Amino acid sequence: MNFSELFIRRLVLSTVLGCLILLLGVQGIFNLAVRQYPKVDETAITITTAYPGASPDLIQGFITEPIADAVSTTENIDYVTSQSSPSTSTVTVNMKLGSDPDTALTEVMSKVQQVRSKLPTASKDPVIVKGTGQQFAIMYLAVQNPNMTAEQVTEYITRVIKPRLSTIQGVAQVQILGAATYSMRIWIDPIRLAARGLTATDVLNAINASNFLSAPGHTQNIFVANNITVHSTLQSPDAFGALPVKGSGDSVVRLRDVAKIELAAEDTDTVVSFNGKPGTFIGIFPTPSANPLQTAAGVVKELPSI
């Protein structure tokens, strides 16, 4: 009796095996992952450090090189790339295929903390982000509102939209392009400044001395304890304008005498438009193990509730 004769004579066995194969095929269809590209466990850790006002050469020598040298000893590393631009240093650590992204992130953070004390004191803390190394997001969302200013739109995105999108499964980073973050802009007039015998350093020292965060503590006795609150930060352009910069006898030079103060966008170098009108873009970057199609579908599903 050959192999095929076994199934010819045993109809019940043939029927059971046929149904089993059919059920396995149906289950495979529903559980089969649909992806834009084949799944590859590719991990890239990006370290971004801001040093306001620094030149690319200064960034390269005092920030980029120390960080790149420190992270280059990470295990399972493939290669390291770096970029030094005005006021910003970017170091990208590309891991070997199949490396555990969480382990890589932990080790890179440890390496960066080892050299943090060697970086300039005026530089910001390094921001470390885990991603796939893609230069473009899986999707971009355009936000426009004719009844709101660019600063108000950015504030709404930062406080409402970004936190909601960050909680979606598979989203690693939500990037705001063309953001107009609220900032107190102080435009110094060099002519008026020189006429009063002042420098930009004098203005900066006066601002730092009068605008700071304070935690004075509390007072207490046997029965009552009271917290002390000090309003040591300036909140409006008028408050900044009244700030004294220099005083001599009855004469006081205030900030408004040598500068123009306004509450405006922190950065105006990037301009974003959609259909010919100003707007703000939101870029969605996936985690290394996420399915881009499922992540994009989750973002689209969340939008109506936002």
Walk me through the structure.
The chain has 306 residues and is α+β, with helices and mostly antiparallel strands. It folds into three domains: 99 residues, 2-Layer Sandwich (Alpha-Beta Plaits); 88 residues, 2-Layer Sandwich (Alpha-Beta Plaits), CATH 3.30.70.1320; 80 residues, Multidrug efflux transporter AcrB TolC docking domain, DN and DC subdomains. It is built from ten helices and 15 strands. The strands form six sheets. Strands 2-3-1-4 form a four-stranded antiparallel sheet. The protein has a three-stranded antiparallel sheet with strand order 5-15-6. A hairpin with a 2-residue loop joins strand 10 and strand 11. Helix 3 crosses helix 4. It is elongated. The relative contact order is 0.14. The mean pLDDT is 84.
Describe how the helices and strands are arranged.
Layout: H1 3-9, H2 11-31, E1 44-50, H3 56-71, E2 77-85, E3 88-95, H4 101-115, E4 127-131, E5 139-143, H5 150-166, E6 171-177, E7 182-188, H6 190-195, H7 200-210, E8 218-220, E9 225-227, H8 237-241, E10 244-248, E11 251-254, H9 255-258, E12 259-265, E13 273-274, E14 277-278, E15 280-286, H10 292-302
Antiparallel strand pairs: 1-3, 1-4, 2-3, 5-15, 6-15, 7-12, 8-9, 10-11, 13-14
CATH homology superfamily of the largest domain: Multidrug efflux transporter AcrB pore domain
Structural class assignment: alpha+beta
Specify the biggest β-sheet.
4 strands, antiparallel
Q: Give the termini separation.
A: 68 Å
Q: What is the averaged pLDDT score?
A: 84
CATH topology of the largest domain: Alpha-Beta Plaits
Counted up, domains total 3
Strand residue content? 25-35%
Q: From the structure provided, what is the oligomeric state, counting identical versus distinct chains? A: single chain
Uncertain parts = none
Helix tally equals: 10
Could you tell me the radius of gyration in angstroms? 29 Å
H/E order of the elements?
HHEHEEHEEHEEHHEEHEEHEEEEH
- The CATH architecture category of the largest domain equals 2-Layer Sandwich
